[in-house]
Amino acid sequence: MADVAARPQQLSCGDCAEDHSPHAPLHRYRDEERHLTARLTELPVHARTTLAALTAVRLLPYFLRFHAETGKGDPHVLGRALDDVWRKLEDGTPVTLPTMLAAFDQIQVAADSPGPLAGLAWYSAAAVTNACHVAVHGEVRETLHCLRYGREASLAAPAASGRAAAGSPGVCRRHASLREEVRRQIRDLDDVARAASPSARASPPT
């Protein structure tokens, strides 16, 4: 698993009058996280794995950009790891330890690199690695890690791209990006929960 000590540091948002600490926006979504945790506990392993993989797929472009601009890391390693996760969902082919270790190595590459883009690459590699762990172990905790990395990356992305605040006073792109990621996660959770429900499994194909 990723070393949390190497996790990117969130920066306070100078463009938002409501943001007084690096993690203030995330703290506003604690109720949503508790709700997600409760729902994830009720899901079967394949549904948790799907949710983790969907989040990792959204973050993968950050690593692609990191590699394109710095020449560091190997996004193909992460792509193959995600392919293995989807294959596990499709036909039960196990995700192997070498695949997981190779993905983990990409976390270290990002952690050893400076700059906000490296931080986004860290979230990307960590999400893929956690998705592999979910595919193997099916733990709620690992799925939650993926979702949290998605939210934290959504906060960091506007700063990494240099986008200035926009909209009404007290509202910035970081908060808008976070809200959008939370909406996506809830939508994905609704979809996988619906697909995993007994009524959906019993329905004949159309």
What does the model show?
The protein is mostly helical. Helices cover 72% and strands 0% of the residues. The protein has 9 helices and no strands. The protein has helices at 24-27, 30-42, 45-70, 75-91, 97-111, 116-137, 140-161, 173-196, 198-202. Helix 3 (45-70) runs antiparallel to helix 6, helix 4 packs parallel to helix 6 (116-137) and helix 5 (97-111) runs antiparallel to helix 6. The protein is globular and about 50 Å long. The N and C termini lie far apart (41 Å).
Summarize the structure.
With 206 residues, this protein is mainly α. The protein has nine helices and no strands.
What topology emerges from the helices and strands here?
Blueprint: H1 24-27, H2 30-42, H3 45-70, H4 75-91, H5 97-111, H6 116-137, H7 140-161, H8 173-196, H9 198-202
Helix pairs in contact: 2-7, 3-4, 3-6, 3-7, 3-8, 4-5, 4-6, 5-6, 6-7, 7-8
Features:
disordered N terminus, mainly alpha, 72% helix, 206 residues, 9 helices, single chain
Shape: globular
- The average pLDDT value, as a whole number, equals 82
Please trace the helix and strand order, writing H or E for each element: HHHHHHHHH
Oligomer: single chain
CA radius of gyration is 17 Å
Poorly predicted tracts of residues: 1-5, 11-23, 164-171
Major sheet summary line: none
- The share of residues in extended strands comes to under 5%
Number of helices: 9
Helix content: over 70%
Distance between the termini: 41 Å
Number-wise, the strands total 0
- Sheet/helix structural class: mainly alpha
